[in-house]
Task: structure prediction
Amino acid sequence: MATPVLVDVRGLSCPQPVLLFHQQLRAGSRDMDVLVDTTASRENVTRAALSRGLRVQEKTEADGVWRLEIRQ
Amino acid sequence: MKNFFATRTGIIVVGLCIGLAAVFLQTMGNPPNMGICVACFGRDIAGGLGLHRAAVVQYIRPEIIGLTLGALLAALISGEFRPRGGSAPIIRFLLGMIAAVGALVFLGCPWRAILRLAGGDLNALVGILGLICGIGVGTLFFRAGYSLGRSAPQSALSGWIFPGFLLALLALYLTFPQQSGAPSSGPLFYSLKGPGSQHAPLLISLGVSLVIGILAQRSRFCTMGAFRDLLLFRQGHLFWGLLTMLAAAFAANQAFGVFKLGFAGQPIAHTDGLWNFLGMATAGLAFALAGGCPGRQLFLAGEGDSDAGIFALGLIVGAAFAHNFSMASSGAGIGLYGAHGALIGLAVAIGIGFLHSRNHA
Result:
């Protein structure tokens, strides 16, 4: 299995986190780890991934940073 | 998802509450079709502080204070208060100024555009079309890689500055309350006639907006984002909130018998279609490039986002300029330099969009 692509969207304001997620999808990545640091980005990226039928598992990376493990 | 307000039902509930609350504030004394307007109320605050001297729009609007402090409260309770900033602050200030000028040429932020439409003001439809076009141009920049750069965590103090500024305004309001028949009280100005003189009692304004601030922080309600996400991602989540706000305010206006359909004779509105459209297009682009409608900027500022606080300060300063430089409209029509302001603002915003896109297409 290929290593998931790491997408770091920390510190980016709307709509860039979701936009970067979409860019990865278009580039053919289905498995990716997205690093987010606001709950709005966390919810938005999760919502976008779920609406495309992907699975999302959330892990706390550090205080205020989450890793969203998005898998096919 | 754990957060109820992040669900479809959640955002619908929030839109419903905001629509009803806005009409409620109108029945309690706020100006017609202006239960809540972040641009107009920012302008009134600028006037209340004497940053402009348009006597009809001077009042320290408690709604701006309540919306931000409500978001602050919700963020503190949920552990989402995270002081951050440093993403091109001076450009965000400028975008706030441009947004104020554009919105005051139209006479309202997106919230008021919705409330005006819900009251039957068809000029708002023209403004909303302009808003969508402005946001649409913004999405083109986003597709070209537009970004103002990353923000970084900052000190707690940094996150408290904007809410602290509003707390100071509240303290000033309480220390120097309105005196019957007097145009000023201490350093503050209070309109005796015009929209600035129309306001709900302090505690009602503050209480209602505090609740809205809490709900909006939890749900990430954003009127600009509603259109942007539809255009950019075909994602209708936020749009549901906007639609429900419109429907709720429409129904409430019907119930109170204040719905009046048409273009002419609408409260605090003019019928100049071209500038209703272009004013809101300018504002829409500025909101898109700054990442949120004026309301959302207040909620972000309440979460400790100092960049959003700087946008909001830019909005207040821009509103002062709009009146001092005769760029703001009135019921009589657009200001002497309204067209200049809107077009220069649009040009500057487009320039910012180009210079901050990766592919200078």
User: Anything to note?
Assistant: The two ends of chain B are 39 Å apart (CA to CA). The longest strand of chain B covers residues 84-85. Chain B touches chain A through 29 residues (CB under 8 Å). Chain B has 14 helices and four strands.
